[in-house]
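Journal club prep, shared notes

We agreed each person brings one worked example of a sequence with its structure written out as tokens. Mine is BTB domain-containing protein. I'm keeping it raw so we can talk through how to read the token line rather than staring at a rendered picture. Sequence first:
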Amino acid sequence: MSDEKAVALLSLADEYKMELLKQDCESMLLKVPPRLELVTLALKYNLENLLKHAKQQCVKDLTHTQLEKQRKLPENKNVDLEVYIKILW
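Then the structure, token by token:
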């Protein structure tokens, strides 16, 4: 499963309360390179493992400048400032 499919399925799995599918999607997303969108998804769908992993990886692997660039990407336009601050702090 690609990470794009995992993101798409995550919404459906959450809507229809399909916890096993949510877990499968989370497992897939734990394997992709760090990006700000993953923190947002983890918060939105209450995926604790993904949230912890994504925050750690963003802090570890991305510089402040890279995070700023990611924050400006169209797919991250809805990232709350709160999410961004959580990563940096």
